[in-house]
Amino acid sequence: MEKNKETKFAKFCWRIYKYFLTIISMFRTNIRDYGMYIALAVIFVIFGSMTNWVFLGPINFTNLLNQTAYVSVLAVGMTLVIVTRQIDLSVGYIGAFLGAYVVVAVENQGQSVLIALGGALLITALVGIIKGYFIAKISVPSFVVTLAGMFIFKGLLMLKTNNRTIPTTNNLFQKIGIGYLPTYDVGGMDLITLIIGVALVLVLIFMGIKGRKKNEKLGITNEKIEIFITKLVFMFGVITYLSWTLSSHKGISYLLLITVVVVVIYHLMTTRTTLGRRIYAVGGNPDAAELSGINVEKIIVIVFISMGILALISGVMYVSRLQNTSPNQGPFWELYAIAAAFIGGASASGGIGKIVNAVIGSIVIMSLKNGMALAGINANIEPIILGSVLLLAVVFDIYTRNVRSIDLVGIHYAKKKYHDELVEAKAQFDLATKELKEAKKMNKEDLIEYEYKFTNAQGLYNKIKEKIRVAQEEDFI
Amino acid sequence: MKKIIGLLLMAVLVISLAACGGSKTIKIGVVLPDASEERWANQDGAFFKKELDALGEGYEYEILFSEGDEAKEKANVEALIARGAEVIILTTEGSGAGAVQAAHEAGVQLIAHDRMAKSASDHADYYTTFNSWNVGKAMGAHLVSEAQAQGCTETAPCDLAIFAGRVADWPNATYFFGGAMEELQPVLNIFNIVNVSDTFSDLALYTEATFDDDAKDALQAAMLPVDTDWNAETAGTKAAAVVAQLTKTSDSIFVLAPNDDTSAAIRQEFALMSEPYDNYFTTGQDASDVALASLMGDPLKGKGTQTMTVFKDVSKLVADSVKIAKNVVDGVDGLTGLTSGPSIDGAKTAYSPIDTLTADNPQLTYDLIFATGYKSKDSDTFSNIDFTPYE
What we know:
Helix content of chain B: 25-40%
Distance between the termini of chain B: 71 Å
Strand content of chain A: under 5%
Largest sheet of chain B: 6 strands, parallel
Order of helices and strands of chain A: HHHHHHEHEEHHHHHHEHHHHHH
Order of helices and strands of chain B: HEHEHEHEEHEHEHHEHEHEHEEH
Structural class of chain A: mainly alpha
Number of helices of chain B: 12
Strand content of chain B: 5-15%
Number of helices of chain A: 19
Oligomer: heterodimer
Shape of chain B: globular
């Protein structure tokens, strides 16, 4: 009786221990993907504690998401540009110019918003084709082509605005810039946001289970159930928090909605379509991609057109939020987007970079700006911190590039199973080391024999250690 | 692994290092354009700190800078609102439309400090400014009186070069220019305009009272070719273009320069002429060190001769803004106890006084600038000047 209870308790403990081992294994294996989430959490906690948690409160969190919108959209496009080993310095002024184009067309020339947007879309598509042509066909470095574009569009922006600030009055601009989705107030909370939150959670659970079933059918190994559930619980927490904060202020802004739509479209495009695969293939190895039948030039042109379209969206969001277009707009947008993409783990050597992570990178940047303003920290410090974070993120990325996957549960099992072998090998190795040392000291003639013995013992010992290191949980069930 | 943890710890450390500013609820928020510009950091910024500190308990405040970025400006305003500000003093980077909207949506009063803040449908509640039109008039009047003293007439006109501030800096630059043109326009026939393109001769006469949207459009159209962007380098480039195609018709040149920095850049280009003018008369404003050295009779460190500057005592402007903010917090009308001017763009406007300093009257410059301690005589820029006659 007593013994039974004890083993039950031990079993329970082991299960908890095993759960943590699994989670830690996942973090250590995928540290590249999770590093920035950890960084974001750290930033949130620091600014939260510095501002009496105003930073994470409903008003400021809504502000933060709205402030991040235009950078996020640019960062999404920039990630693909960086994935294909290019860079685009022109998007800041292109975005500002297109914003000015739309505002001038609507406010001063009396065009309808749709026609103005259509015109801007045509311009940006054409510019994308020209940029892509110079970069892909004529092989001018993208840095130079887009640097030229940056100057050209700075001039065009000043021409378009005639060096004046032009306010926006059209309803659509007001809606995009400062409007929120319709709300239905219940006890100070917006019901619609809450419903969207619940729907999101349900969709996540449903999609997750469906994905697992599909994998089972296809014989693909699913991620461990513990990890799956932990991720769901985590997502549930994040979504609950988001819908709580948003619904207790003003609900979901159009800026946020547009950002989410762009991110979802690009996320699906990069993960589920041939085009997405091809973009990453071109970035990973252009020559191999070309040889396998991918039209590399076309892909690069497409990437630059997509960047231009996102610059248009970003520019319209920016002028709408600030309710004016002015010749001062545009500088630094592209640099924030590039920084966001790199903080989000995009690799300068191409082929690597996730859409969602670029958005997290944007939130990191804007959190620094927002948090410092809120905490009343000297604004001069902000660029220093931002620069340090950017550098750390890239260094972190390079350090973790060759991290091998690890399964602590497997190691735990393996340690038990190979315990005797390991002890034996270790003893042999120690003995051989000691003997070799003595032989060297006494300068024995058959020194080579001892060295031979030592190398053998060392090899055996390392082999067992490696066997334990790569052990998987599945091997022991 | 250890390295990774080490890096993460470093990140935490870097961020925590900055974590020295505490955060408390505030009543008054101040948003200024750029901490890297002398004017905002060391003049307005410093005076705000002094004035607001003097208000003491019940008027907690925070001063933030926008780094020349409109999005950051709106974010700053939002941050101050989130921290409970009841009134925000703002010098905008662009039009301030986003800031006005954010403030009014949260029911917070907005004071536009030195630069008007407005959107298409809304505007700041209060506007504190120097009477910019009068600043311009002082500049124009100086050029006209010196020209008349030099004996310029219709038959023997003197050369005149005109430069303007940044057109986008509404209303200031346009008001400076309009005020100056109000003085110059009636006597324009005693001048020979040497600008590359003369966009000025056909301008109608506008006064502050008759100023309207048409006047704004006409004046800004005239300003565009001579827009210095408030930037010394741009001003120098544009002056060099004037100098390059210039034919001298008189021994004296009169230059309308919008402020001291651009004025210095412009006169350095004129000094590079193969045969420079004998007499050089030019305007400016802000009472910069270089301009003051020139006014006090040191053309070396004064970078040539500047004959007048308009001194706008920023501390008075700041005091006005703070007084309005205090009134708002106290729950009385903002302009209580202040000199109000005609309302600009619908905002209740308070005018702060200006002073005209000229090279002809160094005593006044000494009394207003050095005797009051506004600037220190010990500054290296003034090392060639003997102050003893004025003390």
